[in-house]
Amino acid sequence: MFRTALLGIASALLLPISLQAQTESTSSPSPLEVTVKPTGQHRQLVSVFTNQSISVPELSFDIRNVSQKCVVGISLRTEDKDSEGKVIATGGATFFRQHDGKLNCLEPGQALSETDRTNSLDEYGNPPPKKDVTVDFVIFSDGSTWGAGNDLEQKGYLRGKFDAYKQMQIQKNKENCNSHTNGSPSNGGLSANRPSAASTSSWRFRR
Description:
Elements: H1 2-13, H2 17-20, E1 32-46, E2 53-65, E3 71-81, E4 87-96, E5 98-99, E6 102-103, E7 111-115, E8 130-140, E9 145-146, H3 152-181, E10 200-206
Antiparallel strand pairs: 1-2, 2-7, 3-4, 3-8, 4-10, 5-6, 8-9
């Protein structure tokens, strides 16, 4: 019976992390406040309509965590609109915050700024006068989520990154247990962190 119980525990631990994550919630307010601001810089874009280079103001997303949880994954959706409010382009930005093998949390009350890398010009070669931004999907450090995740590709990207991180932690814990069992812990019984970028970001743009 004891062996059976151990096997049951092991099977639960080996379940995909995404199956153990809490159900998404959209009933509560957005955990993030996002504003679009000019950086004061300009960049050069080439219009696909006029084939001419044009200098446009550079924009940034200012993202503030207004929830009570640590945020590690963010997916935004954008709509560029003309002066009449007509949508001329849609796009988005996705960020998974990880540094030196550890989650790089956006703590409650903290804010970050990310440059808008979407490239949109109207048929006359002018930048859109308005850009609307909505929060589509958020992953917290405990594995719970917020948002419908209508962009399934970016939702899957964030889930995959979080699951990979959790699997890496499980593997590190196994290695630590094995080193202690063998009586020869290395690096003080801690395995080395896998190096990674300060934040892994995925951008896409579509007209």
